[in-house]
What does this fold into?
Amino acid sequence: MWRLVHAGGALDENSPYAYVLVCTHWAATSAVATSGDGELAGFMAGHRVPDDPDTLFVWQIAVTPDHRGQGLASRLLDAVIARTPEPRWLEATVTPSNKASDALFRGAAHRWSTDISVRDWAPASWFPGDHEPERRYRIGPIRSPGST
It folds into this structure.
């Protein structure tokens, strides 16, 4: 996971240890996809928001260049939502230039027939270097399959 983020250059790179925690502490709310040869094709790292357990927060989602454009990120997101007990909301933060993530989350809201709100959240001054501001995406309410 760390290698994928490191090579991609678009996501914030965290320590390798952080990705170990994703695979252990956040395993129930995260997912990986592998290719036919067993190599990592993509991952989604998420967690329940401690003060709002009805909300699943997507921390990072990444797909290798060879697997982009095939809907893998959407399938990872859908799989985690399907197996997470009663998530009511999904949240993520996205930088303004990240058009792929914007399309991913807007597409999820459309697939799930629910609302999405996008608001400014973290100004660039909160981050070191040339980091862009982060906008908060909130999708929901998420309805259980078969509900109206």
Remarks:
- The first helix runs from residue 2 to 8.
- DSSP finds four helices and six strands in the chain.
- Strands lie at 31-34, 40-49, 52-63, 89-94, 115-122, 134-140.
